[in-house]
């Protein structure tokens, strides 16, 4: 700018560039002086472009946008009025036929809508809506900017509805405006050229407002949102980027969708929506591994289709007819035609994938009649915690009968408080003689508010002593459901009546029940690390634990036992053992990484064996894993319905049956539990992973009844069973 003094032909350009950089710095640092200086520079640049200059309309818009930004931060009505006046002048310089007229109409409409929100003048709202309607007619059917106009029209119509104005700006009940708003949200969500991410955000807005107003399109909005989420996550390249992306979206979307379906009385649809909208990251990874799983006859074709699907999905996320900076490309019609071909190709690839056995429902909601197969060996209880509904629900799924829904006597807020109570109670008064009163109080609440209403309804489906599976959502993921009870003399508890297992999803449980040819000799690897990299002390119980496990297993040829420990228990050796052995026992440090859950890990001698490492393996023929490490079944609070922890990772990688831990476990607990568990599991010389849940149940009961050597309550309930 200093090199372009007053009178220089390029001074206006330098003023504009300097103002743009100051605006960017203001966006990042919030220094009001930067914004004020940017506005002053924009004014000077505009003064150098008098009426008749070709750049004047653009400079008018630039100044108007900066003034609007200052209004948003300071609330000075003069800034907003001036911005509107500048937008009007810019619009006048862009008559019908001008390429930027639609943009000027949108800019003016949005400022008028803002002024209505603050001043309440119905004329502003009417003019805003008219301008948006005109802007829409000027855009081609495949112009990506249509999506933004749809969203602005939805917002304006919501303003009409909230203010009680009718379509002409007069007072009245305007249900037509609410219907129009939902129509425009829907149009934005279904507008393919708008790009996947923008469509998904539009659909989530539709879901939010339809839910707030209990509109008739609410359920449809949830279905659309979850379908778009599925496609968007399919186009996201890496596991870690998917997990990061999930944090940007509502964590209770699936549970909210299921609650909506329950309100409409459609319990089967609620189950379908829960299954579609949860464990999305794991579902995507399963799809990527599909050529390795029963697709040997056409694995090359299947793999090629999946690669093509991801590539096309990624291309569809880039709106057509625009450059990287969002400005329109020169040849709009050619870009539109290219985008239409991409959509056709994408649809064609999806249809081809659906022809592959087992993938007929690819990117389609699962059917309840198919999901019911998960309850073949016992009822499944799905627990729904919706943030948008005043109560929580349970759904009991059986193999042959219709599902049963139960409204639970709690809500999302109470559930959150209960989770905190439990976390604070773990470890308190944890000596063998300690009563752990706080923990007992919390477990009683779990019984009263969650488990007891379910158990009362289970009698007709599951006889006493049979197996049941818990499939929790949202905050329910952080409750030890299997340990709930009255905790008093002759009191009731779930463990007295049923053998509890957990499953992250119905599909995961069905996959865990697939039967593979078994080796005549069971390959069993015991992996222990007593002094991992960076540790300040030795885990003294690791070596004795592995020796104990070996002593309790059947002798060769029934079991082929491999022990990897101490300096040999490196990451690479552990990975090889994971691949080569279908039965596994880990004894080591385990860590749950709450910031990046895919970096949760078993700590080896040289470097961690992370969850991300495990997810890249095919363990589809693996039978069982016992995780004798801390926090191996603890999820992530940011994305609870993705169930991202070590135990779930092993199951999704293919292991049928997994025993994991909910929190820190003591060495003395591990020794006693391991001995009791393997005695119950294979004391008769047979190896069957289907016995694991019952063996764990019986082992815990034997420790509870050991009056001579009592164990703290939090250690009796720390282990859980996941899977078949």
From TrEMBL:
* Organism of derivation: Suillus luteus UH-Slu-Lm8-n1
Q: What start-end ranges are recorded for coiled-coil regions in this protein?
A: none
The source's domain of life comes to Eukaryota
- InterPro entries linked to this entry: CHAT_dom, TPR-like_helical_dom_sf
Q: Which Pfam families match?
A: CHAT (PF12770)
Q: What is the name listed in the Swiss-Prot or TrEMBL entry for this protein?
A: CHAT domain-containing protein
In this chain the CHAT domain maps to 442-708
């Amino acid at each position: 700018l200093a090199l372009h003094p007053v009178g220089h032909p390029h001074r206006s350009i330098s003023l504009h560039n300097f103002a743009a950089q100051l605006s960017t710095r203001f966006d990042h640092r919030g220094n009001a002086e930067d914004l004020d200086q940017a506005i002053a520079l924009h004014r000077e640049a505009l003064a150098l472009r008098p009426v008749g200059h070709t750049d004047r309309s653009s400079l008018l818009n630039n100044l108007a946008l900066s003034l609007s930004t200052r209004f948003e931060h300071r609330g000075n009505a003069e800034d907003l009025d001036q911005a509107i006046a500048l937008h009007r002048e810019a619009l006048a310089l862009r008559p019908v036929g001008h390429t930027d007229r639609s943009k000027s109409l949108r800019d003016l409409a949005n400022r008028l809508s803002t002024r209505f929100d603050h001043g309440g003048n119905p004329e502003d709202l009417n003019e805003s809506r008219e301008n948006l309607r005109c802007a829409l007619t000027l855009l081609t059917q495949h112009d990506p900017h249509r999506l933004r106009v749809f969203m602005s029209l939805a917002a304006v119509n919501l303003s009409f509805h909230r203010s009680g104005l009718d379509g002409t700006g007069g007072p009245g009940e305007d249900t037509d405006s609410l219907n129009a708003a939902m129509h425009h949200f829907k149009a934005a969500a279904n507008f393919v050229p708008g790009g996947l991410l923008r469509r998904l955000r539009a659909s989530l807005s539709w879901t939010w407002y339809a839910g707030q107003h209990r509109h008739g399109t609410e359920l449809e909005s949830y279905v659309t949102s979850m379908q778009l989420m599925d496609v968007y996550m399919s186009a996201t390249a890496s596991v870690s980027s998917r997990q990061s992306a999930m944090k940007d979206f509502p964590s209770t979307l699936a549970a909210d969708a299921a609650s909506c379906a329950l309100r409409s009385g459609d319990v089967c649809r609620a189950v379908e929506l829960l299954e579609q909208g949860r464990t999305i990251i794991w579902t995507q990874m399963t799809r990527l591994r599909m050529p390795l799983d029963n697709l040997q006859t056409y694995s090359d074709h299947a793999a090629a289709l999946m690669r093509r699907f991801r590539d096309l999905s990624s291309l569809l996320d880039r709106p057509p007819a625009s450059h990287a900076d969002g400005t329109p490309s020169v040849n709009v019609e050619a870009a539109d035609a290219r985008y239409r071909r991409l959509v056709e190709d994408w649809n064609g690839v999806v249809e081809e994938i659906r022809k592959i056995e087992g993938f007929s429902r690819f990117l389609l909601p699962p059917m309840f009649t198919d999901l019911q197969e998960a309850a073949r060996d016992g009822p499944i209880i799905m627990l729904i915690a919706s943030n948008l509904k005043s109560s929580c629900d349970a759904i009991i799924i059986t193999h042959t009968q219709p599902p049963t829904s139960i409204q639970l006597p709690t809500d999302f807020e109470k559930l959150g408080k209960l989770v905190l109570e439990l976390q604070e109670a773990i470890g308190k008064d944890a000596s063998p003689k300690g009563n752990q009163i706080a923990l007992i109080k919390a477990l009683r609440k779990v019984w009263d508010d969650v488990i007891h209403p379910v158990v009362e309804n289970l009698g007709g489906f599951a006889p006493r002593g049979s197996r049941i599976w818990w499939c929790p959502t949202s905050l329910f993921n952080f409750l030890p459901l299997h340990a709930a009870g009255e905790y008093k003399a002759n009191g009731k508890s779930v463990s007295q009546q049923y053998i509890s297992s957990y499953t992250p999803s119905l599909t995961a449980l069905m996959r865990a029940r697939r039967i593979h040819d078994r080796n005549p000799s069971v390959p069993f690897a015991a992996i222990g690390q007593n002094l991992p990299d960076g540790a300040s002390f030795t885990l003294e119980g690791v070596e004795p634990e592995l020796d104990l496990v070996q002593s309790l297993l059947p002798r060769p040829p029934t079991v082929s036992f491999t022990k990897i420990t101490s300096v040999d228990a490196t990451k690479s050796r552990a990975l090889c053992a994971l691949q080569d052995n279908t039965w596994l026992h880990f004894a080591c440090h385990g860590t749950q990484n709450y910031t990046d859950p895919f970096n949760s890990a078993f700590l080896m001698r040289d470097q961690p064996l992370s969850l991300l490492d495990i997810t890249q393996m095919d363990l589809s023929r693996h039978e069982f894993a016992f995780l004798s490490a801390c926090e191996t079944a603890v999820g992530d609070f940011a994305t609870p319905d993705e169930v991202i922890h070590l135990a779930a990772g092993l199951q999704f990688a293919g292991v049928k049956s997994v025993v994991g831990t909910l929190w820190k476990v003591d060495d003395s607990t591990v020794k006693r539990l391991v001995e009791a568990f393997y005695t119950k599991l294979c004391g008769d010389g047979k190896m069957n992973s289907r016995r694991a849940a019952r063996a764990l149940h019986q082992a815990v009961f034997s420790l509870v009844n050991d009056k001579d050597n009592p164990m703290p309550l939090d250690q009796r309930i720390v282990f859980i069973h996941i899977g078949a």
